[in-house]
Amino acid sequence: MELDTTLSKKAACNSHGQDSSYFLGWEEYERNPYHPIDNPKGIIQMGLAENQLSFDLLESWLDTNPGAAGLKKDGVSVFRELALFQDYHGLPTFKTALAKFMGQLRVDKVIFDPNKLVLTAGSTSANETLMFCLADPGEAFLLPTPYYPGFDRDLKWRTGVEIVPIRCSSSNSFQITEAALEEAYQQAETRGMRVKGVLITNPSNPLGTTTTRRELDILINFIADKGIHLVSDEIYSGTVFSSPGLVSAKEAIVGRDDVSDRVHIVYSLSKDLGLPGFRVGVIYSNNITVVAAATKMSSFGLVSSHTQYLLSAMLSDDKFAMKYVVENRKRIQKRHDMLVSGLLGAGISCLDSNAGLFCWVDMRHLLSSSTFEAEMDLWKKILYEVRLNVSPGSSCHCSEPGWFRVCFANMAEETLKLAMQRIRSFVDTDINGRRQCKLIPCPRRFSLAKWTFQLSSSERKRER
Predict the structure, then answer these.
(1) Please, which residues bridge with residue 284 across strands?
(2) What cofactor does its activity depend on (predicted)?
């Protein structure tokens, strides 16, 4: 397709990342979405890491606190005050309540200073803003694989920053090692890239596991030795439902003054509270220059004062906040166990996990060969025949074919049961060779090799 030369290179190029199977699965789901009555044979969305398990708790709080949603304080309207508020530093009451909530999620092992907190329009904005603060175009960040497919968009598309994968293996449950870190660093240098930092998700998306203290120590020693930064995306911190618990990067650097100003935390209320539409993200840093620069940049993606006011009232209600966290974790664990049990009934296992809204599912035994082409064939069968949208490991840059991210918290319990029935039926008939699955070609052509392996200089739809 010929580029429109009257537009900028950014507008004219097709480098957002929408040619990934992760996003293509979304498109197919949107063409044929499952509905228990209107479209019972439609595609069930299992590629969306969304928490719909505890809305009733939030709605109950709103029913008993109508003043917050009605923009009233002590019965007096604050509509005018909020409508005129536009300070990009944010409402002090909200920042204080949010900082306290972040500490509560970490069992108050660490305290967050509201003055070191920057509000952004979701974690997508937070991560991109940090890239703008920490790296220049052409410089690199190292990311352990598998990683969230949207990072190719969030970190690279507008910033020009490159991603170099840290290749992790199923042999040690995809944990980060010193050797893998050093290999990625050397690969970047060989390609002429200056490495500016490492970015991790803790708990991991897509693994659903918390980063171990040993891994954090390896990372901290690594950034200290290289003189680079660490970004810890902790947006799933409130979803940890079993041991080992979360060790935040903030906790891991206690006593490490040599790196305290080069470790930065990203948080959001999209996952823990299930509020992605509210667009509330956070950058937390001890680096006053980063905080100052990120605060200025946040003017391009502010959180509305109405949203801040409502959530400040909700999170300031300590009794409600902690009751919500405890109950939400119980519900996530129950739903997680349903998925794991259902898959085991079909002869499919998952990586042991203790957090998140998804499982990292091992379908290597269902591949016709140990290749990414076979993974794509299996993904197409699951999408078009089984009618489940899941995310293949190649879209997460996994170095081993046959792994899939499967989400479980964005649907009704009956829908999850139906999904498990479908997958069991598929495995029974396919494995026993009683039929041949007709492969339906993908409606849009894309290069798997390019998506999985390329470290291009080009930039890479929905919040993860």
Answers:
(1) 117, 265
(2) pyridoxal 5'-phosphate
Domains, the chain, in order of start with CATH, read 9-55+326-453 (3.90.1150.10), 68-320 (3.40.640.10)
% of the chain exceeding 90 in pLDDT: 77
Catalogue the active-site residues. 148, 233, 235, 271
Going by their DSSP bridges, the two strands 162-166 and 140-144 should be labelled as parallel
Residue 286 has pLDDT above 90, yes or no: yes
Percent of the chain residues past pLDDT 70, beyond the cut: 90
CA distance 360 to 405: 5
Once rounded to an integer, what is the mean pLDDT over residues 21-38?
Answer: 88
**Residue 74: predicted pLDDT:** 78
Banded pLDDT at 458 (limits 50, 70, 90)? very low
d(CA 162, CA 155): 8
With cut-offs at 50, 70 and 90, classify the pLDDT of residue 134. Answer: very high
pLDDT at residue number 55: 93
Residue-averaged pLDDT of the chain? 89
Predicted confidence (pLDDT) at residue 20 exceeds the cutoff of 80: no
